[in-house]
Write a structure and sequence with these properties.
about 120 residues; UCP033367_VanZ; VanZ-like; transmembrane helix; transmembrane; membrane
């Protein structure tokens, strides 16, 4: 997958999470596991995607994803049928941080592998 495609995919996933987070509670998709696990997994995935899409700009990726986690909780306060909680933002940011870290590490390993592969051909 090209870097541009990864960037588009990362932003699309973040927008999908935003839509699910800000939609009426009855329209929010649910997984059979608990909501905290859903939050961790959703932001783990988006953190991973942003880290892979922007490996040279990991601070930008972290800023976008972590602001997204806290910002979405704040935006829920604007809706009468939703509520933002610090606990939820912390759970989301924990998942995002894990995804960012693993994604960045994976990008570094892949870059090193490409470098070594090209060097010894």
């Amino acid at each position: 997958m090209t870097n541009r495609a990864l960037q588009i995919f990362a932003w699309t996933v973040l927008l999908a999470i935003a839509a699910a987070t800000l939609s009426p509670i009855g329209l929010r998709p649910h997984l059979p596991m608990g909501v905290d696990i859903e939050r961790v997994l959703a932001f783990f995935v988006v953190g991973l995607l942003f880290a892979l899409a922007y490996p040279r700009h990991i601070w930008f990726a972290a800023l976008v994803v972590l602001l997204g986690a806290f910002g979405l909780e704040l935006l829920q306060e604007l809706r009468a049928d939703r509520h933002g909680r610090v606990h939820d933002a912390l759970i989301k940011s924990a998942g995002a941080s894990m995804g960012l870290g693993i994604g960045w590490l994976g990008a570094q390993i892949m870059n090193r592998w490409r470098f070594l592969r090209g060097r010894y051909r």
